[in-house]
Amino acid sequence: MTRTPGSRWRGRYLALVAGALVLVTGCASDAPQDTFKPAGPYAQKIDNLARPVFYIAGVVLVLVFAAVLFVIFKFRQRDDDANKVPHQLHGNTKLEVLWTIAPAVLLVGVLVPTLATVFDLARKPKDPIQITALGQQWWWEFQYPGTGIVTSGEMVFPAGQTVLVTVSSRDVIHSFWFPRLNGKRDAVPGRFQTVKIQADKPGEYWGQCTEFCGLSHANMRMRAVALSPADWERWQANQTAAYAAPTDTLAKAGEAQFAARCASCHQINGLLGTDGKPIIPRDVPQVSGAAPNLSHLMSRSTFAGAIFDLKLPECTATNTEVTGTPVECLNRSALAAWLRNAPGQKPMVPELKGDPPKGRGMPNLNLTEQQIQELIAYLSTRK
Amino acid sequence: MAIIERPQPSGPLELAPAAVVTSRQSLGVFHRPTTESGWRSWLFTVDHKKLGIMYGVVAMFFFVVGGVEALFIRLQLAAPNGKILSAQTYNELFTTHGTTMIFLFVMPMAAAFGNYLVPLQIGARDVAFPRINAFGFWCFLGGGIFLYLSPLLGGLPDGGWFAYAPNTGPIFSPTHGMDFWTLALLITGIASLTGSLNLIVTILNMRAPGMTMMRMPIFTWMILVVQFLLVFAIPVITVALVLLSFQRLYGATFFNVEQGADPLLWQHLFWIFGHPEVYILVLPSFGIVSEVLPVFSRKPLFGYPFVVFSGVAIGFMGWGVWAHHMFASGLGPISVAVFSATTMFIAVPTGVKIINWIATMWGGRLWFTTSMHYAIGLVAMFTIGGLSGVTHAVSPADTQQTDTYYIVAHFHYVLFGGAVFGLFAGFFYWWPKVFGRMLNERLGKVGFWFMLVGMNLTFGPMHITGLQGQPRRMYRYADGMGFNFWNLVATIGAFTLALGVLLFIINALKSIKGPKAPLDPWDARSYEWMTTSPPIAENFASIPAVHGLDEFFHRKYEEDEVTGQLTKVATAEEILADQEAHREAHIHMPSMSYWPLVVASGFPILGLGLIFNTLLAIIGAAVIVGGIFGWALEPPTAPEADQGNDPDASGGTPKELASVG
Fold first, then answer.
1. Which CA distances in Å does B9 have to A69, A320, B5, B586, B653?
2. Chain A residues close to B400, C-beta within 8 Å
3. Is there a contact between B603 and B176 (Cβ–Cβ < 8 Å)?
4. How far does chain A reach from its first CA to its final CA, in angstroms?
5. In what order do the strands lie in the sheet with A203-208?
6. Contact A312, A331 (CB under 8 A)
């Protein structure tokens, strides 16, 4: 079969487009926040809508580039005869009306499915799992209404079920985003806005605050874990279990340290003060008025805005969301470094300013090494 | 106002009130500046050409400043967990990079072109209000200097160029940086507002005889659209900035959520300004390439009316799309649907322009000068930015894309591939007109390829990292996210790009001793080429009448009515000689003045006073008020400022500027 020069060019363009698509999609094999790898129906709906638009845009791009290249080669000046002046064509109204209408028609074709998807994604689900996600500088809190469960940095939910996340903020605007589960929704202080998410399979999903929220915006990540229905029940049971006082002496000392030095900001459910009453932080010296709840810290794999590993990456223990991280898997050095000087590990503004004084982030508590070891021993029992 | 025509005055000029105030001694104390050379001639000038050059030089300086900031940002992001910059410094640099590039480079550079070229393109001797023109320039410079005083006085602004409330409030941004930012933008806003009113009045009132609106050069048309956008957009940002500075300086609660405020108010105000601003940035460049492409294709602009009206349409539709910056902020499905639709359809007039540019080249004889390289580069690169823009209009997809590097990629293709390439096309095209010297074409083309390759290496990969989930405005990213490779490529691209800009600066400096430019180096088409290069102080010896679009071209070439063949009937030199033979007598050019500089210098002082010390604010306000009185009592034209060489040569009606500006 003989090929015309035109078809050879066409082949090259196709190869170029294919290559570009491979680059865009193929290089993403190790990207946990890839928008091209939807893991649930809502992200999938966006992907189904966006992909054809990318292809259409690609085709238009190729057409325009082809036209530009054609013009460049075909109509280039080949001699220096200044007296050769081309025909002074001023326009062609019919043609111009045509290429005004053509893109408009094409865009209507894109607009109709866009609007359908907008309203589809905005529809409220029936009997969803409810989670409230509250942003503050620079971590996320997840509350499970009606259960008393509060986590931070990590959101646990059952796979295969729709979760309606109510998003808000305690200070500045943040944005809630798990790219593989749905598009983002801004967390605006004073507003409670919802976004549906769903993961088809149990697994780990990564997300990030995507609205610039000040100094440590880059350090405000989050992790979502979808569990099987059975694990989900076990997780809830563990999170609502009664407070288990530590037994070994080091951890007991840590409990006292925590009550004295940490509990004015960090809640641990059921921890009793010297007066025998539960310690509940009331006047947290933070602009947001909140610090992460540490009741079940060991059920999480990360800490401090999900930027440090709490569970050693090489740890083979599974299902630690339900069972808690085993002591041998605890990333002691990272936790110790944090306790030694938190603002040295993550840029924060703990300076207490204003009246009453309020900071933004955890201050350096000037703990001794002994105190640090005691606190780690205590925290490692918070499963 | 404007140019008035009056019978030849028989006696002394009757402009000045017959009081004690004479034009030489405006307030009885200060002698009016008259120096025609040296630095004083620049400091106190009201000549739109000198002011245009000053706008250009200062804007270029800020382009380098903003570019160096970008290079630091790219160095920090070259590898995961970058340690070159602290979080605070990084946040400051991306804030000032955006602010500098938009408010201190692209806008004033477009003002440089507009100021310099519009009077020349419409056959005016100057703008309508020459002193206000000078005032605008000094406000722009004052605002720029004011912004960069902040690192000396408490820190650079750190809230992003978009300055979303409440993160820019006094609690969350406790340094003085954002105070400097708001006040600096208020000061440059004065420059934009006065400049835009000035150019609107100039374009509507001071066109050469015969130049109807639809015979105006397309660049002037696009500048006119931009000035209208400015007139309506600047007040909106001014309101927002005043509210924010009241909150920061005086404890007002406009954006304080605890007091019941809704922080989305800021976003609406900001983007109602911010989206028209995009067209403010890019339409001047569209005007430039619409001049450059026809000249180097040796054909008229294809569908001039379509290009004009699509520019006007963009100007109107640009007001109805702002909320597409807020698709993730929770507007509700109805608003999202409406703004999706409007955003898609603004692509139509933009697409029309691109196709018309290609049609302009179609069937022409393309001459690949450096200017033409940049113009074609704009057509190609802007297409990429426009198409990625359409993918944002698909609002569910935008909830994945917004605040990621995909957006950064998009608007850099629009603003670098669009606005900046257009400006560079303009540099190479009008350099001989402005300076009477040629830029080196070979060096220019090398620079172009560095910039083209550099920008694609820098911004192209950001499409990929953005869709892979890399958010913007993060001073570091974690390892293992799939971001590493393309970020390194982008950093290499940024330095390639910077090399291209450096080559241009070298080219510009070398042109000082470069070859003298011929009168009509490009076989140009429009009106501004009918005078000397650089133009004489009064622009034209006599104002040629206009008979159609591309007046200059049609004076050079005559079309055979039967065959359509064109034959050259006159050279540029002959056309100029003919004009000079009819030199008008008694051309009164506006005289130099201290007052624009004096009044403008009061604003940064006032700003510093608002931040630090009320006494200083009073001094600044006094300078402004006193300067305005000096200005008002100074007649616009000194009687001896007659540019006519031979007052008795012609009997025509003299023109004089009786401007209140």
1. 61, 96, 11, 10, 10
2. 35, 43, 46, 50, 179, 183-184
3. no
4. 71
5. A154-158, A221-227, A203-208
6. yes
Beta-carbon contacts of A116 under 8 Å, excluding residues fewer than 6 positions away, are: none
- Residue of B399, B398, B389, B384 lying closest to B345 (CA atoms): B389
Q: Which residues pair with A353 in a beta bridge?
A: A358
Reduced to 3 states (helix: H, G, I; strand: E, B; else coil), residue A358 is strand
The alpha carbon of residue A188 is apart from the nearest alpha carbon of chain B, in Å, by 7
Which of A31, A214, A216 is opposite residue B468, by nearest beta carbon? A31
Partners of A76 on chain B (C-beta within 8 Å) are 365-366, 368
* Pick from B602, B591, B587, B586: nearest CA to B647: B586
DSSP-based three-state secondary structure for B432? helix
Backbone angles phi, psi at A186, to 5 degrees: -70, 140
pLDDT in tens, chain A (383 residues): 444 444 455 555 566 666 665 555 544 457 899 999 999 999 999 999 999 999 999 999 999 999 999 999 999 988 777 667 888 888 899 999 999 999 999 999 999 999 999 999 999 999 999 999 999 999 999 999 999 999 999 999 999 999 999 999 999 999 999 999 999 999 999 999 999 999 999 999 999 999 999 999 999 999 999 999 999 999 999 999 999 999 999 999 999 999 999 999 999 999 998 888 999 998 899 999 999 999 999 999 999 999 999 999 999 988 899 999 999 999 999 999 999 999 999 999 998 777 788 899 999 999 999 999 999 999 999 99
Alpha helices in chain A (DSSP H): 5-21, 41-74, 93-122, 229-239, 249-257, 320-323, 332-340, 342-345, 369-379
Tokens (6 digits) for B456: 């694609």
Whole-angstrom distance, CA of residue A52 vs CA of residue A120: 18
In a mutagenesis test of the A interface, which of B327, B365, B381, B567 is the best target, namely the one with the most A β-carbons within 10 Å?
Answer: B365
Count of positions (residues) in chain B = 661
B332: which chain A residues are within 8 Å (Cβ-Cβ)?
Answer: 122
A61 with B383: Cβ contact below 8 A = yes
Exposed e or buried b per residue across B238-262, where buried means at least 16 C-beta atoms within 10 angstroms of its C-beta = bebbebbbebbeeebebbbbeeebb
Q: Which chain B residues are closer than 8 Å to A87 by Cβ?
A: 299, 363, 564
CB B187 within 8 A of CB B143: yes
Cα separations (Å) of B71 from B94, B120, B381? 11, 37, 21
Distances (CA, A) of A175 to A40, A290, B332, B389, B574: 20, 18, 16, 21, 66
Beta-carbon contacts of B563 under 8 Å, excluding residues fewer than 6 positions away, are: none
| Residues 6 or more apart in contact with residue B379 via CB below 8 angstroms | A64, A68, B289, B293, B354, B357, B358
Q: What are the structure tokens assigned to B277, written together?
A: 């601003």
Query: Residue A353 — φ and ψ, nearest 5°?
Result: -125, 160
Interface with A, mutate which of B175, B339, B394 (most A CBs under 10 A): B394
Interchain CB distance below 8 Å, B397 and A50: yes
B478/A77 Cβ within 8 A: no
How far apart CA B619 and CA B609 sit, in angstroms, is 8
Q: 3-state DSSP: chain A helix, strand, coil percent, rounded to 5? A: 40, 20, 40
Using DSSP's 3-state secondary structure scheme, residue B157 falls into coil
Q: Are A132 and A290 in contact (CB under 8 A)?
A: no
Rg, chain B, Cα only: 25
Is this prediction's ipTM beyond 0.90?
A: yes
Whether the link from the prior residue into A138 is cis, omega within 30° of 0, is yes
- The Cα A210–Cα B330 span in angstroms is 14
CA distance B192 to B196: 6
